[in-house]
Amino acid sequence: MQQKVHSTLSELEINYGIQVIYACEAGSRGWGMASPNSDYDVRFIYAHPLDWYLSIDDGKDVIDLSLEGGKLDIHGWELRKTLRLLRKSNPSLLEWLQSDVQYRLHPMFAEEIQQLAYKCFSPIAGLHHYLRMAEGNYRKLMQREGKSLKFYFNILRPILAAEFIVQYHRVPPLIFEDLVESVPLE
After folding, report:
1. pLDDT for residue 46
2. In what order do the strands lie in the sheet with 19-26?
3. Which site among 27, 54, 146, 157 is 20 to 30 Å from 175 CA-CA?
């Protein structure tokens, strides 16, 4: 599947006339909690040629695809959109930037954006994001007949991330095991 990810990113560059400057794995694979039936959640940041940025009208700033019968979920944000979301301390973007599973990495971009990410981090925005996520996942769990371990995990992870922010006032670790070890619980 990793070869399919790399070839799909190259096809996107050709078909959309973009340059993928960062691509990583998100979701369970990014958290270090993948199971044999986990899908691939590829997230990426891309840039257009200069002419796109000089246009009076804003162009489309998201690319979203589901391939391989839903086993490959690809979602990308244009660079300007990414920077606007970074300024708002978007927790999903902050998670992307921590991913150990990287498919594309423009070295200069990665170094610069990671420094910006930590400067832009808002504990309040992060806390609200993770608490809303836990609450939404809890509501979904209560509406389901069969309750799998994955649903409980999807409630526990954002609660731990929120607790990490309360205790340390910084971006929580992406890897679930690191998150559990970082948050002392009774």
Report:
1. 97
2. 62-67, 72-78, 40-47, 19-26, 102-105
3. 146
